[in-house]
Specification:
single chain, about 350 residues, eight-stranded parallel beta barrel, about 15% strand, TIM Barrel, alpha/beta, about 40% helix
Length: about 350
């Protein structure tokens, strides 16, 4: 039976699609200069392609920093959603013996620094809607977080949180992941892009002043603090003496595809010794390139042991994990020290 022109065209298109997919996987995922990592946590056994080609010699001798992501993850009343930045999540991370506790910082309408990750309050609270930045501290205190198995979990203030835990253990080390309202000014048609940028920069400067003041009043040394953030945050905190972590890679994904070195140079230019990237972008060649420029790479977005093993073998020196109480005991079988 002779194929019709339509069938021939369809067969050609299918073959072309498979060819392009195979080329993508070979060049971007499997090749020696791979751009992406296909993680076990998201894609299961497909990650074997890269893990099998990554040497793990001497992996047990690496000194790795373990960071509790938002403290640690708590189950939510909403399926497949986890919540952090609560007193219980921070306490759990401390009990797990993490090296650093990462928490997210936002600024309320009336200038209070609080712990909350998302842009919107909708998903993670029962009775609040909109942005943290649009609410007063008093309004936020009335909100209840959707944490399973515990009642009356509320949004915490940065000052009270640091004061409470520092009094219990002054040796704790904290990462403040400063979040900005990047939509600020967008709803006002009179605001130009330049004006919106200025508003974001002003917000970052105000947060910087408040963070410095809080840390001084609590008595936490600068050596026990790392600041994570976007370009405006990093710029605001330059010259303060805090170690800085650049987290803007997802906004600059086009730069990453054109030249991975651009991301590293952005971090280096902003005086960041840390480049914090999702596991998707972790490859041996990228980490090696960063290290050559004096930039250390930390990764996040997976708790899977195979993924973490891969990251360590690639030269990653910090692992940001959601469940440190489960992850750390397992990692101890790989590492002599955490």
């Amino acid at each position: 039976m002779i194929d019709t022109p339509m069938k021939q065209r369809r067969r050609f298109l299918v073959s072309l699609l498979f060819f392009l997919l195979a080329s993508f996987i070979t060049f971007f995922v499997i090749g020696s200069n791979a751009f992406f990592y296909i993680s076990f946590q998201r894609f299961g056994r497909l990650a074997n392609f890269q893990l099998d080609h990554c040497s793990t010699d001497g992996i047990q001798h690496r000194q790795i920093q373990i960071i509790g992501h938002r403290g640690s993850a708590q189950k939510s009343t909403t399926p497949n959603l986890v919540i952090g930045n609560t007193q219980r999540s921070i306490t759990s991370a401390i009990k797990a013996n993490v090296n650093w506790i990462e928490i997210d910082v936002r600024r309320t309408r009336d200038g209070k620094l609080v712990l909350f990750h998302d842009d919107s309050l909708n998903k993670k609270t029962f009775n609040l809607e909109g942005k943290v930045e649009s609410k007063s501290w008093n309004e936020l205190q009335k909100g209840k977080l959707k944490v399973a198995d515990i009642r009356d979990q509320t949004i915490l203030s940065l000052k009270n949180t640091l004061s409470h835990f520092h009094a219990l253990n002054p040796n704790l080390k904290w990462i403040l992941d400063v979040k900005l309202d990047n939509d600020r000014g967008d709803t006002d048609k009179q605001n130009t892009v330049k004006k919106a940028t200025e508003l974001i920069q002003q917000e970052a400067a105000l947060i910087k002043e408040d963070v410095v003041s809080i840390l001084r009043s609590v008595g936490i040394p600068k050596s026990h603090i790392i600041i994570f953030g976007d370009t405006e945050v990093i710029t605001a905190f330059q010259g303060t003496g805090f170690q800085l972590g650049y987290t803007t890679i997802l906004k600059r994904h086009k730069d990453f595809l054109v030249s991975r070195n651009r991301i590293i140079q952005f971090a280096k230019h902003d005086q960041c010794k840390l480049l914090v990237i999702p596991i998707l972008f972790v490859t041996h060649s990228f980490v090696e390139l960063a290290n050559e420029e004096g930039v250390t790479v930390w990764s996040y977005d997976s708790d899977d042991l195979n993924d973490l093993k891969y990251c360590i073998a690639c030269g990653v020196e910090g692992l940001i994990v959601d469940h440190p109480n489960q992850t750390i005991p397992t990692l101890r079988r790989l590492l002599t020290a955490i």
